[in-house]
Design brief:
By secondary structure, the protein is α+β, with helices and mostly antiparallel strands. It contains 16 helices and 11 strands.
Length: 536
């Protein structure tokens, strides 16, 4: 009789485990379907960028990890935690704000957060703890990390130059450009090592979770997985430069440049995992837990799933997350302007007149702008002021792929390979009586060098910070109802041979131009979106 009861309970436990696994996977797929646009944005990035190709593996790995937990999950009844609807709603609101200002990474992080919190709602804290790692692992599906590229490029260039010097080879560095007697090299985004770092952290976390039961071991291995690819990428860059130098620039300068890099990274990761496996824990905590549960089948019989509660919490969760895309849909129904006026090149003031000639070829790279102007001005009264170039890219209605804050909008224009950006920094300037931080840089061309100031105009707000620009975008849209923005760039010639004196003259020219011409530029931008009559 006891055996019969044991068999019945064991069978019910297996059914419960399978039921909960199916519900969990259904929840994942349902939410991804509700937010199909955000899901598609992640998938398209995985397709487009080799750095994030691993994203295709994250969801299958998570589903497999959840399925592996089905036996352990079957011993605990789900206890819906409706209090978790509060953080779930906050995550939904963050997604909506990210959608309104077209910040994909915010939308994607919020979507994953909603997925994680949805599990907390339907199954309660005890079961949530069992699936904590598989759920947190979902965040690796979000294609992020581009913000590390400049820092990693700087580190790679610095370490490469230092190692080349230690090798006794003369080397000269100018920004990201490195010159050796045998030839020239440049550290570009692909050389930053960010893709190696992301891959290493992802694999390192998975390896640590599967092979270690000790949290201390897991933490140590993950930290090592962060440090190793950073150091290895500097060595990889040095190795490639030395291969090119010693072979007379015949090796490691083309496609084999990338091949050598990935082969080297693969060997490094193989060594890392081989060493890490030596401290693998043989004891499986989950088996210990299961054994203790199986010792009391009568208590296990009380853990049968209450399907009604499970399905109720499942439906409540889907309704809660569906409110946010429905709200966005309602906001998008407001009438918008069908056409926008053509932007007018501002006429000069008394001290600044249009120059009919194109004085230099360089312009910043801007993508997706509805309208662009590129005009040159000369000072008629102040002979010490050099000519000033004005470039404006306007986005009357920002949308995905057509926005001021975009990784493809930058001072370096790859369509003009003979121009390079150096001495990039920030500078405090006066815009309409307010002190604003702009991006300042020196752009060196084949015949002249330019001092450049670069910043954003979002609604009526000015900033050069990407994050503040997005915050201002939310503020302008909610308070003023404005969705327009622009990228403004002014430039003037500078003689880099005499830094301090020439920089002071160039700074003065650009500041004088802004003081006199910025109001006219603003009026032109406001006129395009029908706001000229409302200008302060």
């Amino acid at each position: 009789m006891y055996d019969g009861q044991s068999s019945q309970v064991s069978q019910q436990v297996r059914v419960n485990g399978m039921t909960f696994s199916v519900v969990s996977i259904s929840l994942l797929l349902s939410i991804l379907g509700i937010f199909y646009q955000t899901t598609f944005s992640m998938v398209s990035t995985w397709v487009r960028s080799e750095t994030y190709t691993h994203g295709f593996l994250i969801l299958p790995i998570v589903i497999w990890l959840i399925w592996q937990k089905r036996e352990l999950l079957s011993h605990y009844p789900p206890t819906p935690n409706y209090i978790a609807l509060i953080p779930l709603s906050i995550a939904g609101m963050v997604w909506m704000l990210g959608y309104l200002v077209d910040v994909l990474v915010v939308q994607q992080l919020a979507l994953v957060a909603m997925l994680v919190l949805s599990f907390l709602v339907i199954m309660g804290l005890r079961l949530f703890k069992v699936l904590l790692f598989p759920l947190i692992f979902l965040f690796f599906a979000v294609p992020m990390g581009e913000g590390l590229v400049p820092t990693m490029m700087e580190y790679t260039a610095t370490m490469t130059v230092a190692l080349v010097k230690l090798s006794g080879i003369p080397v000269y560095r100018d920004g990201m450009f490195i010159s050796l007697p045998s030839g020239n090299w440049s550290v570009v985004e692909a050389c930053s090592g960010v893709r190696y770092l992301i891959s290493s952290i992802t694999l390192g976390c998975l390896f640590a979770y599967i092979n270690y039961s000790s949290y201390r071991k897991r933490f140590i291995f993950i930290i090592v997985s962060v440090i190793v690819p950073v150091v290895a990428n500097g060595l990889r860059a040095y190795m490639i430069v030395m291969l090119g130098h010693l072979s007379g620039m015949e090796l490691a300068v083309g496609v084999d440049h990338l091949i050598y890099g990935w082969v080297f990274f693969g060997l490094v990761m193989l060594i890392l995992f081989s060493i890490g496996s030596k401290w693998r824990d043989s004891e499986d905590r989950e088996k210990v837990i299961l054994n203790s549960l199986e010792q009391s089948l009568e208590s296990a019989s009380t853990t049968m799933f209450i399907h009604k509660h499970l399905m109720t919490s499942f439906l409540v969760t889907l309704v809660a997350v569906s409110l946010w895309p429905a709200w966005v849909y309602a906001l998008n129904q407001y009438p918008r302007m069908d056409t926008y006026a053509e932007i007018q090149i501002p006429n000069g003031q008394t001290n600044w007149q249009k120059n009919k000639k194109k004085l230099w070829e360089w312009t910043p790279r801007t993508v997706g702008a509805d309208q662009n102007i590129n005009q040159f001005y000369s000072s008629t009264q102040n002979r010490s002021s050099g000519p000033v170039g004005l470039h404006v890219a306007q986005y009357p209605e920002q949308k995905q792929g057509a926005e001021v804050v975009n990784s493809r909008n930058k001072l370096f224009n790859n369509t003009m390979p003979r121009w390079r950006v150096t001495k990039k920094s920030t500078k405090q300037v006066v815009l309409n009586g307010q002190e604003i931080t702009v991006i300042s840089a020196v752009v060196i061309g084949p015949r002249e060098s330019l001092l450049v100031w670069y910043w954003y105009r979002v609604g009526r707000y000015y900033t050069s910070d990407n994050y503040m620009a997005k915050f201002r975008e939310v503020e302008a849209r909610l308070l003023d109802g404005r969705q327009d923005a622009a990228i403004l760039t002014i430039s003037t010639p500078i003689n880099i041979g005499d830094d301090e004196e020439e920089a002071a003259v160039a700074d003065k020219s650009l500041q004088l131009f802004l003081t006199e011409m910025l109001p006219r530029v603003e009026h032109s931008l406001d006129h395009v979106v029908g706001q000229a009559g409302n200008s302060d």
